[in-house]
Amino acid sequence: QAMFGDHHADSEIRPGQKLQRPSMPRVFSTVNSTHTSRSFSCPCCYKVHLDNSTLRAHISQFHGEKMPYTCNLCGKGYLSTSGLSRHMQSHKGKTFMCPICDSKFTQKFTVKSHLRTVHGLDQCINCSSVLKLGIEFTQHMKDCDGNKFSVLPV
């Protein structure tokens, strides 16, 4: 029961109990809201919030003094100078472009993540070729310098 979390805690089945199948829209609605919601984790205490606004309110209320590096343009706080530096790129304009759809990003890493999640592609870390994920990409990486893979978090 702990494996499924608290939202399945009342799902007890007793011997002889007749089971009723819930309507499908309700099932999909519950699955979507429970299992596919994007979550936002606090960088100080790792408490998870369902949206960015509640995370930001939590950080300012509970960790205000723990965010020593603050953006002088918008007031966002960061735990490290590197976090603040990455953030400052967002104020400079979008400088990295997706080679497929021309979307623009402030960080090169974000382009790589976009390629993988939106287009199902990855970029060779050796020659910068953009290839479809799967056998084609695996073979290219073997041929292009000893099976080194670009690891991109999803």
What can you see in these coordinates?
With 154 residues, the chain is an alpha+beta fold. Among the domains are: 37-92, Double Stranded RNA Binding Domain (2-Layer Sandwich), CATH 3.30.160; 93-143, Double Stranded RNA Binding Domain (2-Layer Sandwich), CATH 3.30.160. 36% of the residues lie in helices and 12% in strands. The chain contains five helices and eight strands, in the order αββαββαββαββα. The two termini are 28 Å apart. GO terms for molecular function: zinc ion binding. InterPro entries: Znf_C2H2_sf, Znf_C2H2_type.
Shape: flat
Taking the sheet with the most strands, its summary is: 2 strands, antiparallel
CATH fold label of the domain at 37-92: Double Stranded RNA Binding Domain
The number of strands is 8
Measured between the Cα atoms of the first and last residue, the distance is: 28 Å
